[in-house]
Amino acid sequence: MKIWVVSMECAGIAEAGGVKNVSFSLCKEFSDLKHKVTLFIPVYKCTCLDSLFEFNTVETAAEVELCGRKEKITYTTAKSTSNFDVVLINHPLFAEKEAVYTYTENEEKQNPAHKKGNGHLDGLFLDVLFQKAVCAYGSMIPRSEIPEILHCQDASTAMLPAFVANSKAFKKTNCVVTIHNAGPFYHHSFTSIGEAAWYTGLSTPLLEKAMNGRAIEPFLIAATAGAYLTTVSEDYAKELIDPANAEATEGLSPIFAARHIEIKGITNGFDFDRYNPTSKDASKLPFEFDPEKNDLDGKLKCRKFFIQNIVNTDNFKAEGIKKYGKLECSTEYTKEIFFAYHGRITTQKGIAVLTAAVPAILENYPDARFIFAGQGEPRLEIDIVRLCEKYPGKVTFMNGYNQTVVRLATAVSDFVVLPSYFEPCGLEDFIAQVYGTVPVAHKTGGLNKIDNGRTGFLYESNTPGVLIAKLSEIIMLKTLRPSQIARMVKSGAYSVHHEYLWKTVIQKKYLPFFKEILKNSKE
């Protein structure tokens, strides 16, 4: 089977959110099964090419029409060390971007209009440019190299099925679009038919079928163009077609339901080999340990290292991280109970719920400690910084992204708190469990894969009061029944390693799904 994976990001090349891990693992695991896989991805200023080799510049450049002018695209082919092919899309507008979707602090310094954490002002232009570039590539290569499956990752690539539908080269190609997040701010939608037509060149009748109010939705364009829609967990698939979730999907779920649009839920796998705590090379942690065997000596050593050499030192410097707050700890670092949050600092993630709950926990439980790691909305970052200032010695904030630092933040903690209002799949719970850190999560979407009471804790109503009650319960359990928490540590680590490997997900879910698509296309 020939498969193209089209994504704005991929682990090890250009990283932003959870899409990167899915894109990489799809490419790697299908390739390991001897399918011919090609990844298409733009080249940004932040792109890392260390995992690629055998670079070749494609002699023929492409010109795509966009917003009334022609844009020149060049291509570079390469191979990944994980045994799949890569086509790099080159254009100056991509090359100047320091992050995949949003502006960085440095970009804001250079241009105050480019606010840190905000989406690129030319984001829609970049989306269409990328997708038209992939389509144009198909007209430049032999028909024998055209894919049978074109797998598009999230809204930024969701219009590609409509573009290839007008290309003879892709006559026998079947398109799949995976919805990674249909929440507010993730739709990449156009404000009107006129704007959508100006950018895309797609017909008015097609665009009219993709309307959500006045907006034009890429996911609806995909469905109208005949693409198969999937999403990243079974529970999120149910939520996407439930009209009651109109607010959480910014109006999409009632439309999906009314049109009886099918969305197949396939829960994301986990690339254990990239996080394995028994290998320092894989985990990027300073010490090795094995939660599956309740061997946690290395986890405690990681905690000591993190607090002594990162949190509590004035000489700490790590690229991408600005540090706030220190942590007061007992001599052996075992008396305290550590709670972490690692992820994007955004409204969706329920950060306001957590920051509102922290004061009550700290004021009632003197041994509680909180570690925050991530970046995102400035106002939410400020709330965390204020907690560091108000509760010195009890809250620390690793603001930004550095792989080693953020992994340590999770690995050294007893619990990770995930108060997302909605969560399509969730990766942070997987990472936490592999590192022997028990997840505490709002019962929503993909977080439902946590087995409440066995591999983690779930709570129903996402309010500060409910979260305070849940964390209080957990602190008492940790204090009075540590053996129960120890069993959960072992069960969680074992579950992720043996039930959620990407290899298993590909073989049991994606491969049969793709084969069924090909079978239907021949009938």
TrEMBL record:
<dbReference type="Pfam" id="PF13692">
    <property type="entry name" value="Glyco_trans_1_4"/>
</dbReference>
<protein>
    <recommendedName>
        <fullName>starch synthase</fullName>
        <ecNumber>2.4.1.21</ecNumber>
    </recommendedName>
</protein>
<dbReference type="InterPro" id="IPR013534">
    <property type="entry name" value="Starch_synth_cat_dom"/>
</dbReference>
<keyword id="KW-0328">Glycosyltransferase</keyword>
<dbReference type="GO" id="GO:0009011">
    <property type="term" value="F:alpha-1,4-glucan glucosyltransferase (ADP-glucose donor) activity"/>
</dbReference>
<feature type="domain" description="Starch synthase catalytic">
    <location>
        <begin position="2"/>
        <end position="251"/>
    </location>
</feature>
<dbReference type="Pfam" id="PF08323">
    <property type="entry name" value="Glyco_transf_5"/>
</dbReference>
<keyword id="KW-0808">Transferase</keyword>
